[in-house]
Design goal:
CATH architecture of the largest domain in chain B: 3-Layer(aba) Sandwich
Helix content of chain A: over 70%
Shape of chain B: globular
Oligomer: heterotrimer
Number of strands of chain B: 12
Distance between the termini of chain A: 33 Å
Chains: A mainly alpha (272), B alpha/beta (437), C mainly alpha (289)
Number of strands of chain A: 0
Helix content of chain B: 40-55%
CATH superfamily of chain A: MetI-like
Strand content of chain A: under 5%
Strand content of chain B: 5-15%
Largest sheet of chain A: none
């Protein structure tokens, strides 16, 4: 059957796409303009010359924050994904008494806004001497993300073929061996998606970062960006360069590993 | 065999789980020579250089003590407070930290986090070398708890020299004149906002209100208001001040909610705003940006009627309870009382020294010379918000109440809001320290 | 595969400890909310519901709660609707989907801090992008104060959030549309249904479960929104864009009214529980865990 031409469709999609890209375009082009060009207010015109210097200035301010973000996000993600998938695997593969309860209780904990535990959390970190340290941030993000990682990975593991389990059982292989030998290699889609999602969330997170750390030595990139402002006027070109730099890791992930990102996003809603 | 495997795995998993927690000990027992751990919020530009000056002097006097510097950005120390909350609660006090005076300092005293500094106060004769009001701002339960070393003046009226010259205007001396001047500007130059203000950070709304209250009620009413001695619902001076404040609103920069004070000063010097009430720290930014005093901008104390006062902001350093190197703390605080150190520090910082031995002529620019002279001759009144005259819990609310008022100026409603907030923060009782003899 | 009780302990202990820890922290918050804790050091001075009564008597609390509700009412329907329309358009567009889909979804990868910084500038009344664009095309009369106006700022912020979250709704709807059986759609085409009719009579009724997910997720987002408020307006002008989680942060860490801050947390918790518990049981049923 010949489909109708649907010119209207492409018209609508193109207009919407232009609207969706405009902010990004403005951000990118402004980050490459001189303050003078920005002051003229012609935002649509491309920059006359590429002011790479804006990026150097913004990077100079952000570099410690970026480093801190890396130092915190990578171990926190790795540990959260490992411990989460460890439990997620068991929840997805086996039925036992209370397995539903565990799952339910964990998913409620995942979805509740974490603001509600911010006060005791701060006290807890202070009591452990972890306040304002990178270790503190790692512990905080680990704790917050283990339940999330468990749920997401369980969602993925559920989709694995039952035959895999049956074959393993025939070989007399126990759960631990199964997890390391079979699941880790086979369930890559799930594990990579979980990792990517959790890494992005930690990288982009703001509230915990601003509550648990202060000051130039321990602060992550997002609070530094939020505080990036000119000394006596708003330096939009520098701010936009800073915003671009901070967005590079998640955007790279999105562009090159978009499939996993989306899969993780969907699993994160418990969409079965 | 299988069982062993299982046990090993259990151990590994648990080891992984507690690994991050195991790192707790990090940073707790640092050995080494004598150290002085300092927390402060002077991180950028002139402030940073000024702090380095103090470090220089300290190192000269105490070559064996190493300074461990912890600068934490955030105007008025708002973020530093959060850090200290953690450190002090965790019983990891630094050797000294910065605090504003007054109610802010009292917070640490009430938490039993800092020790008195009476010995340093006596030894350096601060009762005679510092103005009495400074002593009053650091004195709680009969003891001094902080060593102040610089003062900012909050009640300056900055104005665009070019604009005022062009329109033949004189800087106003009280709020009625201010309204008149604003009206003239608005009539003759409709494109210029007569009064520049930025309330994205909300405290400048309080700065503006403070000078209105001083102009209407004088310093006595001002002090009484912020210490909860007036009834906000019935007091006539407060009501008058609110009425005048309301009259100012049509002359304010209309997009003030999206700007901070520092966004305003540059355009002010360019003549895009007529005038602005802000502290002397604005002068530093203006000079840095290449605008000259007496050419593009000028500043006058405000209000001059009924009485010109010095509305004061003071920074102090403290002696935390249980600090690791008490001698280093003492050396640090003693260094701060040295008039020579104060002089060099304040010239760079853009504030004025508190020690009476620093002459007015030490400062290069007229604004700070005049500030220094006023500090010695005029009545000194602590600024409400950075002074700190009122309890922080009230001040945070107060900024919100005032900014809200700028958008819907209902005097009866704001009186009620003030009364409620003062009751909630228990202002009258908490501010007793100010009136204690 | 056989497993023993030791395996259950081995696999579930880490998760259980974390989850128990989180629930313990919630109880702790609830207990703090019943204490008159003011200042930096913990003070255990039990005062029952006094903090809640204080809150309920504060105009600011009601403004904040109202803003959270406005978030839900104004943020969720357009995001869901736009997401659904775009998903349907993508589904119809065939191969062009590969080009358009990332364009609508990329904002989801950005931090709210980035979104906030960017949109704060888009909306700046003086030199901002939107007003400059309007002036550029001769529509200067339509220029608005945007985030400098207490009446518009909240809606501006919601606009930025719609920009960021539409792709998320779109992806969920796209998956749901793909789950609709081909035959139904083809059959209706043969009967002469046009695109709009297919959308109204087949797509909309068959994506209800995606709507559940979208609404639940966006409601939770509306309850915890904090970063955008912080970066774009600091709650201003006045209190006009403050929400509960912002108030909670300010009350606790700025005003040091920790008891009050905990009470706000508990209120956020109660509101969130109303969504989370039904949602979690609903999705568990669907997943047949």
């Amino acid at each position: 059957m010949k489909r109708p031409q649907r010119l209207w469709l492409y018209f609508v999609l193109t207009i919407a796409a232009a609207a969706w890209l405009l902010p990004m375009y403005v951000m990118l082009s402004t980050s490459l303009k001189t303050p003078r060009e920005v002051a003229l207010g012609q935002y649509i015109t491309p920059p006359h010359s590429l002011e790479i210097n804006n990026y150097l200035v913004a990077f100079g301010v952000l570099k410690q924050g970026l480093l801190n973000s890396v130092v915190v996000a990578i171990p926190a993600t790795a540990l959260a994904v490992f411990l989460g998938s460890w439990a997620g695997f068991f929840l997805a593969m086996f039925r036992f008494r209370h397995s539903q309860t565990v799952f339910f209780v964990a998913s409620v904990a995942t979805f509740l806004p974490y603001q509600i535990i911010l006060i005791p959390f701060t006290q807890f970190m202070a009591a452990l001497n972890l306040f304002n340290t990178q270790w503190g941030l790692i512990v905080a993000y680990l704790l917050l993300n283990v339940p999330m990682a468990a749920l997401i990975s369980a969602t993925f593991f559920q989709m694995l073929p039952v035959e895999l389990q049956e074959a393993a059982a025939l070989d007399g292989c126990g759960p631990v061996t199964f997890y390391f030998r079979i699941l880790l290699p086979v369930a890559q889609l799930g594990l990579v998606s979980t990792t990517i999602l959790i890494f992005t969330m930690i990288w982009n997170e703001f509230l915990i970062a601003i509550t648990l750390t202060q000051g130039p030595y321990t602060q992550m990139a997002t609070p530094v960006l939020a505080g990036l402002k000119g000394n006596y006027a708003q330096l939009w070109h520098i701010q936009m360069a800073g915003a671009m730099i901070t967005s590079i890791p998640p955007l790279i992930i999105f562009i090159f590993l978009g499939r996993y990102f989306i899969a993780g996003l969907m699993a994160g809603t418990l969409k079965g | 065999m299988k069982r062993v495997y299982l046990c090993v795995s259990i151990l590994v998993i648990f080891a992984l789980f507690v690994l991050p927690l195991g790192a707790l000990a990090k940073g707790v027992d640092q050995e080494g020579g004598k150290e002085l751990i300092v927390y402060h919020w002077w991180t950028a530009g002139g402030e940073r250089e000024a702090m380095n000056k103090i470090f220089e002097w300290f190192n000269k006097k105490n070559p064996d003590i190493k300074i461990v510097d912890n600068p934490i950005a955030g105007g008025g120390g708002i973020t530093l407070k959060t850090v200290l909350l953690g450190l002090l609660a965790a019983k990891m006090p630094p050797d000294t930290f910065q605090s504003l005076s007054g109610a802010e300092l009292k917070m640490y005293v009430d938490g039993n986090y800092i020790d008195p500094v009476d010995d340093i106060w006596q030894a350096n004769n601060l009762d005679t070398n510092y103005p009495p009001v400074i002593g009053r701002m650091t004195l709680f339960n009969g003891h001094h708890y902080g060593i102040p070393m610089n003062a900012h003046r909050a009640n300056w009226l900055f104005y665009s020299k070019q604009l005022f010259d062009e329109l033949g205007l004189q800087p106003p001396q009280d709020v009625d004149e201010m309204i008149a001047v604003a009206k003239t500007i608005k009539e003759k130059k409709p494109d210029v906002a007569p009064i520049g203000i930025g309330t994205r950070e909300k405290w400048p709304a309080v700065f503006l209100f403070d000078v209105v209250l001083l102009s209407v009620g004088g310093p006595d009413a001002y002090e009484k208001f912020y210490t909860g001695q007036l009834d906000p619902k019935t007091d006539p001076a407060l009501k008058d001040a609110l009425t005048k404040y309301k009259e100012l609103i049509p002359y304010l920069y209309e997009f003030h909610g999206a700007k901070t004070w520092s966004d305003i000063v540059g355009p002010l010097a360019e003549g895009q705003f007529g005038m602005m009430v802000i502290g002397d720290f604005a002068a530093g930014l203006l000079v840095q940006a290449g605008y000259q005093e007496g050419v593009q901008w000028e500043a006058e104390a405000f209000p001059k009627k009924p009485e010109e006062v010095f509305l004061m902001i003071v920074d102090t350093f403290t002696r935390p309870t249980g600090a690791k190197s008490p001698e280093a703390t003492t050396a640090w605080l003693t260094n701060l009382t040295d008039p020579k150190v104060q002089e060099e520090f304040n010239i760079i910082k853009g504030s004025i020294a508190i020690h009476k031995d620093v002459p007015d002529t030490a400062y290069a620019d007229s604004l700070h010379q005049r500030a220094s002279a006023a500090f010695k001759s005029k009545r000194i009144v602590p600024s409400s918000i950075h002074g700190v005259l009122a309890p922080p819990a009230f001040l945070s609310d107060w900024q919100d109440i005032l900014t809200r008022f700028l958008y819907s100026p209902d005097i009866e409603r704001i009186q009620g809001e003030i009364a409620d907030s003062m009751a909630l923060a228990n202002v009258a009782e908490v501010s007793q320290w100010y009136w204690a003899k | 595969m056989r497993y023993t009780r030791a395996h259950i302990i081995l696999f579930l202990t880490p998760l259980s400890l974390v989850v128990l820890f989180m629930y313990a922290m919630m109880l702790w918050t609830a207990y703090v909310s019943m204490n008159n804790w003011v200042g930096m050091a913990p003070s255990w001075d039990f005062n029952g519901l006094a903090n809640y009564i204080t809150l309920f008597r504060m105009e600011r609390f009601w403004i904040n709660l109202q803003n959270n509700i406005l978030w839900m009412v104004i943020f969720i329907p357009p995001t869901a609707f736009l997401g659904l329309v775009l998903a349907y358009a993508l589904e119809l567009s065939g191969r062009a989907e590969a080009i358009f889909r990332p364009i609508f979804l990329y904002p989801m990868a950005l931090s709210f801090v980035v979104t906030g910084t960017l949109w704060a500038w888009m909306y700046d009344p003086g030199t901002g992008v939107i007003n400059s664009l309007l002036k550029g095309v001769g529509l200067g009369a339509l220029a608005q104060p945007w985030i400098a106006s207490p009446k518009q700022a909240l809606y501006c912020m919601i606009g930025a959030a719609i920009w960021q979250y539409t792709g998320f709704a779109m992806t969920l709807y796209l998956a749901a549309i793909r789950d609709i059986s081909r035959e139904i759609i083809e059959a209706s085409r043969v009967d002469g249904a046009n695109d709009l009719q297919v959308f109204t009579y087949i797509v909309v009724p068959n994506v209800q479960h995606a709507t559940m997910i979208v609404v639940a997720m966006l409601t939770l987002f509306s309850l915890k929104v904090f970063d955008l408020v912080w970066v774009m307006t600091m709650g201003g002008p006045g209190n006009s864009t403050e929400v509960l989680s912002y108030f909670m942060f300010v009350a606790t860490f700025r005003q040091q009214l920790v008891g009050i801050g905990a009470a706000i947390s508990v209120i956020i918790l109660v509101l969130a529980v109303l969504v989370v518990i039904p949602y979690a049981s609903w999705s568990m049923k669907r997943m047949q865990v």
